[in-house]
Amino acid sequence: MTVIPNAAFQPPELLPYRVPDTLDTFATYKYRNACNISSLDLHSAFFPLCSERKSMLTAMSSGGRIGTDAPYMPRGCDMRWFGTEEVCEILGRFEKVIFVGDSMMRHAIGSINVLIRKDLGYGAVTDWNFSPEESVACEPNSIDVEIEQMIRFPIASEEVGRFKTLIGTTKPAKPYAFIFGHGLWNDLDLQATLDWLDQILDMTISQLPYLSKPEAFWPRLFITPNAAGKEKPDEWIVSQGNKALMLFEESVRVEANRRGVEHLGTWNMSIQANKYDGV
């Protein structure tokens, strides 16, 4: 690594696994020129890389931008930018990666779809769940990424039935990973969100009792909503404005951790990003 004296941020390590952080990995994607966006516009790499998951989640939740629409930078240590092949390999470690929640989860899985399909223009414009017929860069049948839209508590009976069918009642060959997102549909009502999360966790354990054992590997992540933008309709400023979002994010982090669920905050990383309506 070349050290730059007195620089606020040092350049990333000169190691093979950091190469994607310094290149426009979108260069070969479909509609790269039409969309006119580089991966370097989204993330600015620096030294040091976070050494483990806990510090990475803290750094990502606390990071932000130096100026409106500037590249995002975690705080204190950096995250990796994974190329498509690495994303495929990571997703392939799990029997299923299951996104559960409201509209924010559609954006999250849509972003994964863009990476998996190498398509900036239409990668996210399709059915949300992967199918064998879709054109993805991963090896056939090597990944299974699903989304279950559940937005209100109590959770609707048909949504409960669909979720139980999805996870089954037997231990899979590889672990399931769960990514939760909730809040805006209930105006950031903390208790309603916790009741929603508890119902899903309880349902999962009732279907898969092995997960109740202390040694069970059960990766779970809760993502809280992004910051409100300047176009946020005035009618939502009190119930879904930035003060409410910050308080909700902090409270969810504490309560999720009590339940063994990790947390990723997106308020700080999105406060200086232009968004159409802040939602």
Structural write-up:
- Helix 4 crosses helix 5.
- The protein has 2 domains: 70 residues, no CATH class; 189 residues, Rossmann fold.
- It has a 5-stranded parallel β-sheet, sandwiched between helices.
- The model has no long low-confidence stretch (mean pLDDT 92).
- The radius of gyration is 19 Å and the shape is globular.
- The chain is of the alpha/beta class and 279 residues long.
- Strand 3, helix 5 and strand 4 form a beta-alpha-beta unit.
Strand arrangement within the widest β-sheet reads 4-3-5-6-7
* CATH topology grouping of the largest domain: Rossmann fold
- As a whole number of angstroms, the C-alpha radius of gyration is 19 Å
Number of strands: 7
CATH level-1 class of the largest domain = Alpha Beta
* Helix residue percentage: 25-40%
The CATH architecture assignment of the largest domain turns out to be 3-Layer(aba) Sandwich
What is the arithmetic mean of pLDDT?
Answer: 92
Share of β-strand residues: 5-15%
Distance between the termini: 40 Å
**What are the secondary-structure elements, in order, as H or E?**
HHHEEHEHEHEHEHHEH
Return the domain count: 2
Class from helix and strand fractions = alpha/beta
- Main sheet attributes: strand count, strand direction, barrel closure: 5 strands, parallel
User: What does the overall shape look like?
Assistant: globular
Q: DSSP helix count?
A: 10
Unreliable stretches (pLDDT < 50, length at least 5) are none
